[in-house]
Amino acid sequence: MVRRTKEEAQETRSQILQAAEQAFYERGVARTTLADIAALAGVTRGAIYWHFSNKSDLLQALLDTLHEPLDELARASESEDELDPLGCMRKLLIHLFHQVALDPKTRRINEILFHKCEFTDEMCDMRRQRQTHSQECNLRIGLTLRNAVHRGQLPENLDTTRGAVCIHAYINGLIGQWLLVPDSFQLHQEAERWVDAGLDMLRWSPSLRN
Fold this sequence. Notes:
Elements: H1 2-27, H2 34-41, H3 45-51, H4 55-78, H5 85-102, H6 104-115, H7 124-150, H8 160-180, H9 191-204
GO molecular function: DNA-binding transcription factor activity; transcription cis-regulatory region binding
Pfam family, one: TetR_N
InterPro entries: DNA-bd_HTH_TetR-type_CS (IPR023772), Homeodomain-like_sf (IPR009057), HTH-type_TetR-like_transc_reg (IPR050109), HTH_TetR (IPR001647), Tet_transcr_reg_TetR-rel_C_sf (IPR036271), Tscrpt_reg_MAATS_C (IPR013572)
């Protein structure tokens, strides 16, 4: 009976997340209420509050569903024992572009984050979470770049802190622009070339040298 109750609770949580994804995508985060999500999910607002504190919590839960498949590869590129850290990063970024372009769920959630979410009022908590996440990403990327320098894959005088910010901004910019105007360039078909262009920036830009 306890196991069944846990299964039902998990099913309800999944229904709420699916409804939130649909509502945020169709209406934007600011114009979506918890009552809207409850109606789509076929649950009460109380059921939503049982699983999530607010809309910010809901959106973060949606984002969390996208991180898991890439965690192992990200950890490998950050490891000092990894023999090919730059190759791991390249593989990770190509996979990311493919996911955004080809997986409908990944595309919808990224479009919500990039173009349908205002970090104001009730979303202030989400803004702080995104700020923390961005800083953590820069640190993780910087660690990978330092490992790549150590392995001779990047110049010894690369400013890895500045390089991390640049490659992070480059990837975010490509995804954001493609989601806004998908016909402006090919993200999936030319994923390798887009990633290599970013890595070339790290290899050759004089402005990224110490």
